[in-house]
Amino acid sequence: MSHSGAQKGSSLILVLMVASAAIGGTLQYGYNLAIMNAPTIFIQTFINETFLERWDIQLEDYQVTLVWTIIVSIFSLGGFAGALIAGPMTIRFGRKKCLLLNNIFLMSGSLLALTSRAAKSFEMIIISRVLVGINAGISMNVQPMYFGESAPKHLRGAISLSSAVFTAFGVVLGQVVGLREILGSEPCWQYLLASNAIPGVIQLLTLPWFPESPRYLLIDRGDKEACINALRRLRGCEVLGSELDEILQEQAETKGMRPSRPWELFTDRSVRWQLISVMIISSAMQLCGNDSIYFYASYVFKEAGIADNKIQYVTIGTGTCEFTACIMCNLLIERKGRRFMLMGGFILMTVWAVVFTIALSFEHYISWMPYLSMACIFTYILSFGMGPAGVTGVLPTEIFNQTARPAAYMIAGSMMWLNLFIIGMIFPFLVSELSEYCFVPFGAVCMLSALFVGLFLPETKGKSLSVITSEFHKLNFKGQDKKCPSQTQAQYQLGEVCLSTAL
């Protein structure tokens, strides 16, 4: 096979595998964030009517808002549960099979949402959101792991970042499907909530045709032949000896070791700063308030002075911004690096949060200020998409070895979902209480995150796992005389060797 033919084969199989995994994976996260904005009024009316019919109680506005906030935010608690079970599932079933089994939660949730209106039960919507959240929580952890372990080193960042591209595409798709002219109308809201089953069906039909993660097959299962076959299919050519040697070396270093449990990482000094980094950056991804804009776009744009009948169309622009930014980040990440994209994204978000606050403060005095407010929301989301949205999911794959990676994703995912739940619960009250200063806390989070990345996070672009481990070793064992083996001696991830020499 010629070199160009090999490249085409590699591109085709890899691209199709990425599309199949992501369309029923991280696309679901973005889609389920976005579809809850359009039917807000209709579901609130449904909640009120249900209480009136069952118990002859007319709910106050704040009570309806509270029930609605629970429906929206319970998705995050489902995601938290999904993040916790994702690690054990990937170890037991593998990356690909885990994504396929994950559709059980999705289909169950879709069925409950579809029948909730006929059953006159808003509780079924709550349970549906929990199940769909579990699905999203699992896919947000497993999919970047699957991609990172399947991609060649020079494409690792770009392939892993495609998870964020599909998340943003899911947001846009959810916003379009949620238009009043499609499924966002009063008679159709239950079909809108159940429409997330369609991407799941597409994944179930396509993903079985693609190979399992080569690293999982060799390191976890010890099946060298299956690993070589998977690499051959994904690369479209004969397997490079150097790539196979790297996986074999990692297998040798982790031989006899069981996968780490999450609580064990907290007591392992050799991964201390890796763990601190993913926890802070995963938390900042939600505490910056970006994803809450999708939950409560109507609240935000109303506060910015946008007319009610224009809000649904303006909202589509938010998703389009992040989608465009994620594609740009995908193109730039292997050139500029992870650290540059993360820090740049957070710095820009800090700037736009300040400008947005100023614009909201003067919107009653200057006629064009609402338009500046709207522009600030778009640029805030654009900056988020350029860095934190994509790079956050890549980091655990690059800075943890095979035995620690599932546990690291569980911790990172747990932090992300817990913080999304907290922000989702307080966001509407934050907007109403702080009014024009509602983005000040988010700006502070972005500024502190940029400082942390600039001071403590090493660059991982194009580096082998051993080099990354060596750089973190300097932080983990700062002030100690004993050093990690030199990079010329350690060609692979030697976290355990570093630990033994340091001790």
From TrEMBL:
Keywords attached to this entry: Cell membrane, Membrane, Sugar transport, Transmembrane, Transmembrane helix, Transport
Transmembrane segments annotated in the record for this chain: 12-31, 66-87, 125-146, 158-177, 189-210, 311-333, 340-362, 368-395, 407-431, 437-457
Gene Ontology BP term (one): dehydroascorbic acid transport
GO molecular function, one term: fructose transmembrane transporter activity
Keyword Transmembrane helix applies: yes
Annotated localization: Cell membrane, Sarcolemma; Cell membrane
Cellular component, GO annotation: sarcolemma
Pfam family, one: Sugar_tr
Keyword Endoplasmic reticulum tagged: no
Annotated catalysed reactions: D-fructose(out) = D-fructose(in)
Bilayer topology: Multi-pass membrane protein
UniProt cross-references to SUPFAM superfamilies, sorted A to Z: MFS general substrate transporter (SSF103473)
Alphabetized Gene3D superfamilies for the sequence: MFS general substrate transporter like domains
Predominant subcellular localization, coarse grouping: membrane
Domain Major facilitator superfamily (MFS) profile: from-to ranges: 18-461
InterPro entries to which the protein is assigned, alphabetical: GLUT (IPR045263), MFS_dom (IPR020846), MFS_sugar_transport-like (IPR005828), MFS_trans_sf (IPR036259), Sugar/inositol_transpt (IPR003663), Sugar_transporter_CS (IPR005829)
Family the UniProt entry places it in: Belongs to the major facilitator superfamily. Sugar transporter (TC 2.A.1.1) family. Glucose transporter subfamily.
Protein name listed in UniProt: Solute carrier family 2, facilitated glucose transporter member 5
